[in-house]
Design goal:
Blueprint lengths: L50 E8 L2 E8 L7 E4 L22 E4 L20 H13 L4 E6 L1 H12 L4 E7 L9 H24 L8 H11 L9 H5 L3 E3 L7 E3 L15 H8 L6 E6 L8 H14 L3 E6 L5 H4 L1 H15 L9
Parallel strand pairs: 3-4, 3-5, 5-6, 6-9, 9-10
Antiparallel strand pairs: 1-2, 2-4, 7-8
Length: 354
């Protein structure tokens, strides 16, 4: 095994990063950072598979991603959570079988992907169309999915709508669209809609967002995820989510689209969720973190699991002693479960020449 000093090399400031224009993912110079705690310095005795930045054209610009492993086999499309990015899988994928390929994507407005046009807001369900665009781009007849949080919900919805197209599905910590308290919907939208309009106006003015020191960014990400993202793991997400300030030297700002904070999730009822659950006939692995909330009354989780277990003999459920970002913060606890599942069900599917 080749000993790699770090998956995120220690970085001095590399100069000003270039921000992608709204209609194009553009070129963003990757800037990583080491600071006093040296949280970016991780020593791993693992062999790192080849990784390549890719861009997929879509009507509003580009979807950015990271292709891990061989290019001659269809990859497992890996989907991140809300306001995260493809970097969320940087510590998990190197621990998975290297003869398999993985394509970690940035959702629109996240990471290095293009933002949606001005005047619009983000809807989680729009990502279903994005996945179909990716399939069309590569001429895939099938797709393999792995998702975390929002990405896991997108994976569930896609898999239940197109069960014959999905040959395996892995979900991490978010099982399905959550059932909110009905009394919260009105006040939540009453607050979010004006906030989204303000964020949209700021985008149009192209003014620089508030900037922070790198240490502050690490702390804000750590605290903002309720410490689910450890300080040691934070750089893997920040790498695709910050830009050097042109106003304040040695400070950075978040580059994800601020409209994301006020987007609209998938509002399926529990009855709809349960009917869709019956359509999940493919090999299906779900990992639930023990130290993470259910985001809804636990009875809805239990009802869904009961339906899937009854209807899908290829379903596996595992509970992991970790937090919501278990795959990023503690990948050693996740990788063996995912690897065993993949070795059981993954099949080589040759790529069509591009």
């Amino acid at each position: 095994m080749t000993k790699i000093k770090s998956l995120l090399p220690q970085i001095n400031y590399l100069g000003q990063m270039l921000r992608a224009p709204q209609q194009s993912a553009g070129t963003i110079v990757s800037q990583r950072c080491s600071h006093n705690q040296q949280i970016c310095d991780e020593t791993l005795s693992i062999e790192k598979p080849k990784v390549e930045e890719i861009r997929i054209p879509v009507p509003y610009g580009e979807i950015a991603g990271k292709w891990w492993g061989p290019k001659d086999t269809r990859p497992i499309v890996s989907l991140h959570g809300w306001q995260d990015n493809a970097g969320t899988f940087d510590r998990l994928i190197p621990r998975l079988p290297h003869h398999m390929s993985f394509l970690a994507l940035d959702f629109a407005g996240h990471g290095l992907s293009s933002r949606i046009p001005d005047g619009m807001t983000y809807h989680t369900q729009d990502n279903i169309y994005m996945l179909k665009m990716v399939m069309q781009h590569y001429q895939w007849k099938k797709i393999s999915l792995m998702g975390h949080s929002m990405g896991s919900i997108v994976g569930f919805v896609f898999s239940s709508i197109f069960p014959d197209m999905v040959d395996l599905y892995i979900g991490l910590d978010a099982l399905k669209p959550h059932i909110p308290d009905p009394h919260e919907i009105g006040p939540r939208l009453q607050k979010r809609i004006p906030q989204m309009l303000v964020a949209d106006i700021r985008n149009r003015h192209k003014s620089e967002p508030p900037s922070y020191t790198y240490e502050d960014l690490v702390s804000r990400l750590h605290q903002g995820t309720h410490k689910s993202v450890s300080k040691e793991a934070a750089p893997y997400l920040l790498n695709r989510n910050i830009q050097k300030s042109s106003v304040n030297p040695n400070k950075f700002f978040f580059t994800r689209d601020s409209r994301l904070k006020y987007g609209v999730g998938i509002g399926f009822s529990q009855d709809i969720n349960l009917e869709l659950a019956k359509r999940l006939t493919m090999p299906y692995l779900f990992l639930k973190a023990k130290h993470s909330t259910y985001y809804e009354d636990k009875k809805y989780f239990d009802e869904f699991i009961e339906v899937v277990q009854k209807n899908n003999p290829l379903f596996e459920l595992h509970f992991v002693d970790s937090t919501h970002h278990m795959h990023l913060t503690e990948p050693k606890k996740v990788a063996p479960i995912v690897s065993k599942f993949l070795c059981k069900y993954w099949k080589h599917d040759a790529m069509v020449a591009q």
